[in-house]
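@channel sequence for tomorrow's demo:
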Amino acid sequence: MEGRNQTFQHLKPICVSLSQDVLALNGPRGDVAKITRSVQELKTVVAKEAPSLDPKLGDYIFFPLSQLLKLSQKVSLRCLELSLECIAIVIEHAWGQHIQTQLAAQIVILCTLMAEKKPRGFAFGETSEELKTAAFLCLKNTFVAASASADCVTFFRSESNFPQLGQTISTTLDGIIESEAVQTQIAGADSLKALVENVADREICASFLPGIVSKLTKILTPSTTMRRNYRVLTVCLEVLEGLLKSTVGSEEQVVSKALTSDNQSGKSSVIDTKWRENAATQLKPALQSVLRLTEHSREDVRESLAGLCLTLLEHCRTTLANCSQMALETLFQLSAGFTSDNSNTTTIRLEMLLKADPPFANLLQSTINDWLQSLPTVMQASNEHAKLRKVQQVSAVYGLIRDAGLETSMLDQRLASALRDSVVITLQSPSVKTEGKSFVSSVQSLDLSVLDGERASTEFSNALVEHRAQEEVLSCIEGFAKVVSSSGSSAAFAGDLARSLRYSSAEIQVADFWLLLTATQNALQRQDDISALLDLDGDEGKAAYTDCLEELYSLGVTILNSPSDEDSPPDERLQSLALRALALRAQTAGPDFRYELIDALYPVLHTLATPSTELQRDSITTLNIFTTACRYDSVRDLIVENVDYLTNAVSLKLNAFDLSPQVPMVMVMMVRLAGSSVIPYMEDVVESIFAVLEGWHGYSMLVEVLFRVLLVVAEEGAKAPQLATIENGEKSKVEAVVSEKWRPTNVAELASSLREKRAEESPEKEEREKAPQRPWKGNEEVGGDAEDKDSEDELDAVGRSTDDADLPPPAPKMYSLLLKITELTQHFLPAASPSLRTSLLSLIRTSVPPISKHENSFLPLINTLWPEIVSRMDDSEPQVQASALEIIGVLCEHAGDFMRTRIIELWPGLAEVYRRTAKDIVSNSGSRKVDDPKKKSTSREITSAFDRALRTMYDSPTHYIDTSTRIVWDAFVEALTTVIKHVPLSPALFDDALEMLAPVLDSRPDVREAFEADNADAVWLLLTRRGKMISLQCPEMPEALVRKGMVWPVVV
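structure tokens (generated this afternoon):
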């Protein structure tokens, strides 16, 4: 009571002042602005004291407002707006359930008039958005309050009030449609909802249903020009749901209740059979437009739409039978396209409806059959979103039927056909077709970099995706196939795919293979997970899918082993799927799959050798799965332990002259993956390669590919630990070369040499030895026995070489293989292909170091290869010239003194390479006059132009010098430096080499060190002549002369 009194004291002065101001409005002193301020103040106090209001206070507040409303033609729109807002608060918090019937009717009439766009009877010509909002709010509170009074409800439902109620409904809907303010639309929707739920009965809703639905359709239909607020859409959907449930609903309680009410009032019902038929006809197009809201981004809008669809299925399926399938389609689209709690609730309600209403199962079966028939047509369209939606709908319905325990065997067969057609259409889509890849690839495309970084991968990507637009569609179909395979009766689905797989081809076979593989993998994995928890025996489903796996495995091996040619290249998608089938078989079998490797391992390596990056990646993944399933430590161990299977397969292919690039490249993959440990087992395979090279040496591409294989074998063989640990006298050989090199004669040696020469010319010299009386040959060649002493001398002379010849080479198998491969190159070095010549020289460069470990095999190899290597110095390709020079250096490094004679014979050729390269460098440097930097092979003058050109090349990297010229010059410098290091040369040749490389002595410390190690004085003298020495350095006095007190004279 005390709080009520305080509220009254707050309201009294404002209400009294407002009453006086309103009365003054009839006279000349009326102040509209003051009245507006008083109403604003009253609204503020009323809103603040709302919880303390009661009906009497409400009447007290309403009195000055009612006087004001009677003079509405003289006040402003703002004043009317504030008045209605005050009345709305009074209705909600003061009158509530005690509102008077006549007062409620008057308020409805007044608010309806003010909510019109051009109200009649007012001074203003057009209402405002704020006034309409206040009027709708007041209407809403009036209808809510009237629902608690039986007299009010009876009055509003009376026939005499029908026109006014219709006017209110029409004005409210027009306000929602035409208003631009969101708050006005929301207030109008709320007032309409309050009218339908609290005042209108079934007959009123039926009477106004066509008009209400027509205007609600305009509001709810998605439009690009008018995007409705989500709250407006949500409320209007709820209104439409309530109207349909009340008017065309088929619940027995609603119908019987309405009939009882009609009988008691003595009125005939508007709703009869004809009305229902007309309603069904007129509502279908309207609902079609409304159901397009499935694409709305707001979850609450989709939730309200799902409620409408459920109402159509649960309550209106009899009257609106023509809308059931449409509602069901929308409902599954909503539940499948979005993951939320509402989607799960919708699914649960559908399951309950399916179990409680058996006829609903027939509707579902009919719906999914229609969708399956239309699925291929949808897939042919360009709308990717529509494709996803349709597949998700079918999947959701199938999952509901499966979970309800209904029979799906016939449905599974139709599903197999529909999904197969959908996949085929997706694969044949013109927008995703790509140009076919060349099956016979060049050597450059057989790159092995795919092996790096892929060894740990055990997951496959989608084998059929060739375009981004395909990815979502195929992923959706894949998920659907997994859902089908999870069903206990999915054997019919797998059986239909398996039967089609045997006789299909092209895209149909790809689709069958992919769908069956997806279903089989999911079914076996799911059943294994269940078996881990429950000990299930005699699982028929697993047995059926196990048979499917065996068929997929057999077909996969056949596909990977199928011969191919340029006219009919293999389908990479089928090969990729075949690899997945082999991998799944390995995962299922576990360690027992080791027995299958004899058939499965080679095809995987064969596919790994294809030029397709995707197939290479899938092959690596398959090998990783093989390794894990068979419990090998690594892919290397997998290949090494099964190398006998692989070598036999490769040999059979080569012996049958199968000349596809994959066959030799399998060896490359084997050696790359397993390393040098696999090479000793490949002797027969290398022999087969030799046979192919002999018979098909005219085919440059084939020869190039085969030598690429031999190059990889040589590279890995050179890394063999058996060869790396053998020294075989390398140190002693180098020391021997160093001791034989020329060095300047000192004074003591000169004196000794003179004494020996004088002794030889003295008359007391020994008698000269008689000329030999027999040829210097073995006893067997001259026929007859020789004297014992001569035999012993010959044995001493040849004994060492005989012993050396009997020594076996290190690691006989590995060494012999490398030696054979290297010897073979001599026949192909004159080939026309520059890349082949370069590859052969690279092979020689790789194999020389390990072969040099056994001198008796290495030195004859030099004799064999030397002519061809030397001839490559005049090759037309700079890269080949550089490779030849590099190999000359390598041979000198490992053969040492053995190369002395060959280098002397080759010296004019080296000088010619020098002259030619120097001339090109000078020409490229931009000099106008191109001097010949070396006029003769023995000349020691280097022109200033060449010095400048080299200085420019080394000091200014940005200055352009032809790359080929740089390559040849760098190779020449390296080769000549290696010759100086390891081969003893005469002083003349040494000086000649020093003159050639004089321009690089400053920029290449390694070159200078090599020359100074042989003859530092010559280097010093050359640098002094060229003005490169900053000051004269006095040579060091020999130690023997220093002890005798000899010193160099001081030059002033």
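heads up for whoever presents: The two ends are 133 Å apart (CA to CA).
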